[in-house]
Structures are given as C-alpha cells and as structure tokens.
Amino acid sequence: LRLDEKVRVAVFKSEVKGVFCAGADLKERAKMDDAEVGHFVKRLRNLMDEIAALPVPTIAAIDGYALGGGLELALACDLRVAASSAKMGLIETTRGLLPGAGGTQRLPRCVGIGLAKELIFTGRQIDGEEAASIGLVNHTVPQNSEGDAAYRRALTLAKEILPQAPFAVKMGKLAINRGIEVDIASGMAIEGMCYAQNIPTRDRQEGMAAFREKRPPQFIGK
C-alpha cells in the first residue's frame, strides 16, 4: 500500500460480522514465555506504527467489537467510523496487562489525557454513540441488517477524499502527524516544508487553472 501510487485511501474493515478486531488471542498468549510475549507485542507495536505511517488517509470501519489491540488498530488509523452498537475499549487492565501496541500514546492524543486515563485505568467498554461524543470516532451510524453500516459510512467518507489532490492530502497528513508532536513554532516550520514540496506540483497548477476556468479540477497525483 505504501508504495502503490494508485491507492488514495485505505479502509480497514473486518470480514467477521459483529467484530472489528477482538485483540490478541489470550489463550495463545498464555502458552508464551515472557520473552515470547515481549517479542510478540513489539512486532504488534511495529505493525501499528507502519499503519499509522501509511502516506494515504486511513479509515477504520468499526462495525462491532474493537477491544484491546483491536482498538489500538483503529487508533493507528487517521479516521474512525463506528456503528452505534459497536463496543470499544482498551480492556488490558482487566486481564492484568496494559495497552502495548500504542494505546497509551494514541488514545490520549485522540480524546485527551483525563479521559484516556479513565478508560485505560477502568478497562471500560463504550459504544459508538459515546465514542463519538468524546471524539474517539469521527462518525457514528445506526447498524443495519447487513452489519456493515460503519463500512458503508467509511466508504462515503473515502469518496469525499478521493477527488482531492492526492499529493496535497499526503502532505497534509504528514504535516499534521509530525506537527502534533512538537511545539507550534516547530510545527509551523514542518508545515512550511510540506507546503514547499507541494508548490511545484502539477496538481497545484491544475487546481489554480480549474478555479480560473470555473471547472472541476482533474488531479493526477503529480
């Protein structure tokens, strides 16, 4: 995906009805020794980091349970859409664990420190409506009879992104992701560097020409 220039948006969905991702298989984990558990979680953390670093926008379509590592997967995405009936939570403390694949870092950046601490300390599960109210998900929708309402909403959101200039969207994502980690002056510098890369693109010239000629732009990602 990272190397395929034809990819504009990546949507993460489950093929299992009622479950987005239920997290690690604790029966499997119980058979591992301490070293194996550490290696497993490190690989999982690296996977989430790679998903977060994808250059194109990513959307998690949460149509069911997103628990533990499953919610960490959704948090690694840029945007999240949930069915109102979906259940989400970093439940690790209820199993004698703590989030180890980015949850302690990405959840506070998403909902704020106080709420993140409360959710992690309690291991509480929340539904799609509450998730939307605290900013954990961008949109919540009533579940349908097919069980894919969040996926359908995610596709609608993806289709809003598709017509926009691909390189500009990528630079926007990069500027946000890098800028949020630093002070605002450094963030402004990052934005300036990303903007400078976008100036010589053919898409920027096309956008200006389309505006002048009062027609829809035809972006090519160059």
TrEMBL record:
<keyword id="KW-0456">Lyase</keyword>
<dbReference type="GO" id="GO:0004300">
    <property type="term" value="F:enoyl-CoA hydratase activity"/>
</dbReference>
<protein>
    <submittedName>
        <fullName>ECHD2 protein</fullName>
    </submittedName>
</protein>
<dbReference type="Pfam" id="PF00378">
    <property type="entry name" value="ECH_1"/>
</dbReference>
<dbReference type="InterPro" id="IPR029045">
    <property type="entry name" value="ClpP/crotonase-like_dom_sf"/>
</dbReference>
<dbReference type="InterPro" id="IPR018376">
    <property type="entry name" value="Enoyl-CoA_hyd/isom_CS"/>
</dbReference>
<dbReference type="InterPro" id="IPR014748">
    <property type="entry name" value="Enoyl-CoA_hydra_C"/>
</dbReference>
<dbReference type="InterPro" id="IPR001753">
    <property type="entry name" value="Enoyl-CoA_hydra/iso"/>
</dbReference>
<dbReference type="GO" id="GO:0006635">
    <property type="term" value="P:fatty acid beta-oxidation"/>
</dbReference>
<comment type="similarity">
    <text>Belongs to the enoyl-CoA hydratase/isomerase family.</text>
</comment>
<dbReference type="GO" id="GO:0005739">
    <property type="term" value="C:mitochondrion"/>
</dbReference>
